[in-house]
Design goal:
- There is one protein chain.
- By secondary structure, the protein is an all-alpha fold.
- It is 71% helix and 0% strand.
- The longest helix is centred in the last third of the chain and has 31 residues.
């Protein structure tokens, strides 16, 4: 598959936004809108999964196994590090239970014994619970004739959201899977469908969408507007659509550092809070402005993610390439 550099740029910027959000939060600052990087990630995920399945047909089982191979190993490693740190007393506020640990490793939403929130041991792993849910439903839709897949995907996710609006479930699993944020995956798949058929806006409209999206995110932050998937989701969709429209026109410049950070974005997302926690703890006793602490934390979190990408994610990916399902006969187009 041809690399979509605009998507890589957005992955990089979304990861850095989340890093800045957590760094500011831990340093006593404020950058709430950085959390909207998750909304951008979800739209991108739907876009990429639909594009991959259209261009490289795959069986449902192989799709799920490939996704597990891509997502799980690095996540499990960071989760185990968090558990070890808690056992050693490095995270005094973290409470561990066997059920929470196993649920975290298996991507099952449960309430954290530390906070009561529906969070895994590695807090930012909450997004992976949504990702895995999307992958399972997407894989099921691959069993259907191609013409029915997108409509079925839309219908299933819309039904889950409607159920949530009607019954307001209290169980952590149902409360997770009925959130409107899941519609961002579907929106990404719809964008991919139009993009593959060449039905994208002109470069002028694409630029306008990007500008409107950025202005919308800025307004949410500066004016303290409502911050949720209902406000951030449409802006994330506009940002992705505008970016791929600009790239389709051939006017998107090459930015190798952003491309690299896009490749490393998953590791940056997983590992950055470890570095931020250390930096904030080391600098808390010094008379250093919070903005400076935030800056150092962002740099440290990003660098740790890049090191993990080179030392953990890439070697693991190469090691696992030889698994049996990778060597199986390709599915017919």
């Amino acid at each position: 598959m041809k690399t979509l550099y605009g998507i890589q740029y957005l992955r990089a910027l979304a990861a850095l936004a989340v890093v800045l959000f957590h760094a500011a939060e831990r340093s006593g600052g404020h950058f709430r809108i950085g959390a909207a990087g998750v909304d951008v990630f979800f739209v991108i995920s739907g876009f990429i999964m639909w594009t991959m399945s259209e261009r490289r047909p795959v069986t449902p089982l192989r799709f799920v196994l490939d996704r597990l191979q891509r997502i799980a190993p690095s996540y499990w490693i960071v989760t185990i590090i968090m558990i070890a740190g808690a056992v050693l007393g490095l995270f005094p506020n973290m409470k561990l239970t066997a059920s929470h640990i196993f649920s975290s490793l298996l991507f099952i939403p449960v309430r954290s014994p530390s906070s009561g929130e529906i969070w895994p041991v590695l807090v930012q792993g909450w997004t992976l619970n949504f990702e895995m849910f999307f992958y399972v439903i997407f894989a099921a839709c691959l069993l259907l004739p191609q013409r029915l897949r997108l409509g079925s995907l839309i219908g299933i996710f819309a039904a889950f959201v409607a159920i949530g609006a009607l019954i307001h479930p209290q169980s952590p699993m149902l409360a997770t899977y009925v959130r409107p944020i899941i519609l961002e995956f579907v929106a990404g798949a719809v964008l991919a469908r139009f993009w593959l058929k060449g039905h994208v806006p002109s470069i002028g409209v694409g630029l306008a969408l990007v500008i409107v999206s950025i202005a919308g995110f800025a307004a949410i932050e500066l004016l303290a507007l409502d911050f949720n998937e209902m406000t951030c989701g449409p802006l994330a969709v506009a940002l992705v659509l505008g970016t791929v429209s600009i790239e389709r026109s051939g006017k998107l410049p090459s930015v190798p550092p952003l491309t690299y950070l896009g490749n490393a974005s998953y590791s940056i997302y997983l590992w950055h809070t470890l570095a931020i926690s250390v930096i904030v703890k080391l600098l808390s006793s010094l008379q250093i402005p919070s903005d400076a602490v935030t800056f150092v934390s962002v740099i440290s979190g990003t660098l740790l993610g890049v090191v993990a990408y080179e030392a953990v994610e890439k070697p693991l990916r190469n090691l696992l390439k030889g698994l049996s399902w990778r060597r199986s006969r390709p599915s017919p187009a």
